[in-house]
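Exercise 7. Given the encoded structure of a 293-residue chain, write a plausible sequence.
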């Protein structure tokens, strides 16, 4: 998941040249390594004009590749579901001019938690649409799982495009038992999930230390508890395809990653789950970090 910020300072709206440089490098690396890549418009407020132009550009450039997944609105905060539907209809219609079938992820109100509203009135007239759910295990517990379960039972396709084991602030202690319950539920439903995040900030959700090399190759001493637990889940549920170390190709060289293994035979039309994936934060230090998607 390439999370491209559009709100906080030095974002895509303010500095599109830098943001696109970051995005294009990550997207091209994912395609080269036969991996899914989520193009995430990472915002909390509707920015329809800018989003429409951005996704039009992305679909025209990358829509022919089955690796592409579009996340058109990271976390609607104060929008109604009807306003999100209107926004999504415009953005999806623009994408579909150039890309007829790659998966498109649609958020719901209150930080992607109101799946009951989606279940009551899903989008109509489009194919290969999924709806995002976000959770942080120390804050969001059985009540949110029950809501997601009810939507799932009604046939709503769910994709967890952001989750982690601490509080919703991204900080505080890890709640390993609750996080485990979430992952067990997701795996039982074969729902894809993405962890937040590979970055080196002074917060629980950032998985690596500041001294970690931006090119990857991190040993155990550089991976923080959230990263170690994430890796444990990934290895546990993907043991049949996991390899301890893999090489992956960027434009000019090859690096190693302790986290990821290749995803082969990608089929975006029939996606139910892939590897449990890490998030990738496009900040100024890790804009070109070597990581797996």
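Solution.
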């Amino acid at each position: 998941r390439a999370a491209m910020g559009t709100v906080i300072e030095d974002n895509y709206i303010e500095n599109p040249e830098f943001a696109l440089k970051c995005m294009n490098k990550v997207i091209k690396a994912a395609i080269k390594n036969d991996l899914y890549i989520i193009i995430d418009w990472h915002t909390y407020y509707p920015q329809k004009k800018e989003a429409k132009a951005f996704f039009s550009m992305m679909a025209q450039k990358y829509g022919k590749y089955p690796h592409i997944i579009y996340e058109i609105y990271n976390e609607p905060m104060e929008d109604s579901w009807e306003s999100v539907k209107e926004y999504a209809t415009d953005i999806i219609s623009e994408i579909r001019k150039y890309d007829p079938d790659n998966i498109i992820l649609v958020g719901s109100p209150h930080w992607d938690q109101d799946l009951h509203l989606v279940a009551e009135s899903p989008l109509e007239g489009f194919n290969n649409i999924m709806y995002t759910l976000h959770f942080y295990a120390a804050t969001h517990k059985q009540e949110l799982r029950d809501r997601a379960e009810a939507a799932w039972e009604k046939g709503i396709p769910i994709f967890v495009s952001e989750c982690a084991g601490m509080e919703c602030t991204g900080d505080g202690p890890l709640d390993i038992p609750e996080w485990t319950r979430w992952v067990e539920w997701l795996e039982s439903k074969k729902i894809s999930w993405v962890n937040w995040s590979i970055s080196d900030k002074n917060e629980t959700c950032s998985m690596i230390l500041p001294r970690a090399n931006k090119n990857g190759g991190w040993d155990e001493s550089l991976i923080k508890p959230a990263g170690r637990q994430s890796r444990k889940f990934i290895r546990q549920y993907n043991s049949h395809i996991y390899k301890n170390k893999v090489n992956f190709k960027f434009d000019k060289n090859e690096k190693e990653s302790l986290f990821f293994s290749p995803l082969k035979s990608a089929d975006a039309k029939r996606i139910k789950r892939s590897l449990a994936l890490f998030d990738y934060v496009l900040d100024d230090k890790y804009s070109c970090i070597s990581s797996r998607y």
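Remark. The chain has a mean pLDDT of 86. Students should compare their own answers with the one above.
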